[in-house]
Amino acid sequence: MTIEWRYTVERDLGILSVSGYLGPDAVHRFTGAVGWALARGTGPVIVDLTGLRGWSAEGQLAVTEAARRLAAAGRSLELAAIPADGSLVPGGDCPLIPVHADLAGALAAHSTRHGEPPQGRHEWRPTGRPTGDQQRD
Fold this sequence. Notes:
CATH topology: Transcription Regulator spoIIAA
Number of helices: 3
Distance between the termini: 30 Å
């Protein structure tokens, strides 16, 4: 099993939506998605796990490693809708990872409305084709 992901930028806020199962076989794909987010934004990244069916210990470690990578770049990672099968317990050296009940709560914390008009919004999927008001290379 693996994951599917979509990355959306709304103003200075990145939203990395992940679905599927974040297990050992999907860690590399998740790490690549985080790298994509690092290259295409400047603000916090909310990892929306609404569509995630579950995650393994390796998947949880990949999330904490993503928080470290983002922090090293001066950005933060936040989680929305963590799977019911376990909470994330980062190590003591991990940056703070805010956890929101759902994506709407995470966006409200940043005063951004999901589904806003396309102006200032861009979306990428693994095919690399953006959607929104501007095309990017």
